[in-house]
Amino acid sequence: LAQPGSTPIAQDPKFRAMSPGVEPQLEDPKLTAPQREALLAALREACGGDLAAVKVDGESLDEASKDWSFHTPHRPLAVACPSSPEQTAAVVRACVAARVPMVPRGGGTGVEGGAIPYGGGVVVSTERLRRLELRSDELLAVVGAGVYKEELGKFLKPHGLLFGPDPSSNPTLGGMASTGGSGMTTMRYGTTKENVVSLVVVTAQGEVIQTRRPVRKSSSGYELTQLYMGAEGTLGIICELTVRLRKQPPLRSGGVLPFSNVKDAVDTVVGAVHIDPPSMLRCELLNSEGVECTNKIFKTTLRECPMLFLEFQGADAALLRQDFDKVVAIAAQHGCVASEVQYAEHGESLDEIWEARRGCYVAAMRYRGQGRDRVFVSDVCVPIPRLAECVAGAEADCQVLGLKCVICAHIADGNFHCLVPHQPAEMEAVNEFEAKIISRALACGGTVSGEHGIGVGKVAHSCREHGEAHVAVQQSIKRALDPLGLMNPGKVLPLPKDGPAKL
């Protein structure tokens, strides 16, 4: 059997070719006009007879045909918008009866093509799954899959509570669970996977299940919660989440540390991780081009050099400053000039910079002044001791290939993103860069995706990471739970040679 790091399983003759950046070759359902109308009628009935809950207009289909990635859009047959798990189950049963594929969709903020409906079929939108229930005595909340991260934050703020994971974009909670999203606070609160207690899922057969009871611990049966999380809608549709909440600390502070090169900045982070300052919440890196991009698009006035952005939270201002000074002491050992360090006792004064950091993806599109560039986004995560060489190597690779490289990184957890703006004519160089950064990450013991998921863009890379035996186990789970292959086909795993190609 192939071992991790060997020839990608996607090159095996048993599998349909799916190279990086190549969309799965799936045919749309061959429905006659009467069959199509019967399906649409069944979908409307499934959504409680609400005609507006099933969209077939061109604007809605175009919106559902794409995500934030540069992967080729593909229109669905329809967009169904159920408002409860029971309605979602009825939608699934209607699609199963018609043998039509289903693609769950949240906010459409993915960057790997995971929500693009290749093979046509029905997009199942979570936009009407809007439940919001606070269980403050348990520090839990029950949240509909269509609720956005920022929306949940506003709901919890008056209660002095928060949901820990904080992706740079504003995804839905269902999308965060489906890809294992995390973001800028992982070092303190963990990823979405560590902050979800239980899920309500609709299976590929149209049954509603709760993955486990929403108690603090359970040893009852298989851990289905983690199985469905990160599956990107290929095994079922997440409808509701019971999430773990935290108390909101009363004080925030932060600072900015400039460096002469990326390696010194990353070495500082490695040292900071080792001492683990208890109040440090965020530790983000921008390289020189990332800062230049931020200044240009968001009109900030930062010095254009590699920078660390830090945030600390707690109840004691003196302890926050003490933790910051500990990181500054480490930074001084790696070339950071203490006189250029900026500290903000009141973290709110840094909110403008944090918002600019969140906007890196959009800024990268406009960075080169060539209109709206496409943007390739890497998502590797590597062991902390190998972090400096991987980040510095990625930056050097881009320079050799003549590409702009905007590095924005949740650097303290080993996850870094290289945003590479490009036009179609530059795709060969982008593919070469991707091959280099993936190979280096795997050679260092890392993973091809820390938080964005696999979608269609990283199928071959994921197979290379795990090896044939591991992928075969995943394929077995997929066949067992979705024997008809109707749940988001062509995503996460390579398509078997014998189908489902014609649905």
Q: For the terminal residues, how far apart are their CA atoms? A: 31 Å
What is the global morphology? Answer: globular
- Arithmetic mean of pLDDT: 91
- Biggest sheet layout: 7 strands, antiparallel
> Residue ranges: pLDDT <50 for 5 or more in a row?
1-20
Query: What is the tally of helical segments?
Result: 17
CA-atom Rg in angstroms: 23 Å
Oligomer: single chain
Helix content: 25-40%
Number of strands: 18
SS-based class = alpha+beta
Beta-strand portion reads 15-25%
> Strand order across the biggest sheet?
15-12-14-13-17-18-16
What does this protein structure show overall?
The chain has 503 residues and is an alpha+beta fold. It contains 17 helices and 18 strands. It has helices at 33-46, 58-63, 85-98, 149-156, 173-179, 186-189, 192-195, 224-228, 262-275, 288-298, 317-332, 351-358, 360-366, 387-401, 427-443, 459-466, 468-481, and strands at residues 54-55, 78-80, 102-105, 122-125, 132-135, 140-144, 161-162, 196-203, 208-210, 236-244, 246-247, 251-258, 280-286, 307-314, 342-344, 374-377, 406-410, 415-422. Strands 15-12-14-13-17-18-16 form a seven-stranded antiparallel sheet, with helices on both faces. Strands 5-6-10-8-9 form a five-stranded antiparallel sheet, with helices on both faces. Helix 9 crosses helix 11 (317-332) and helix 14 (387-401) runs antiparallel to helix 15 (427-443). The longest helix is centred in the C-terminal third of the chain and has 17 residues, at 427-443. The radius of gyration is 23 Å and the shape is globular. Mean pLDDT is 91; it is low at 1-20.
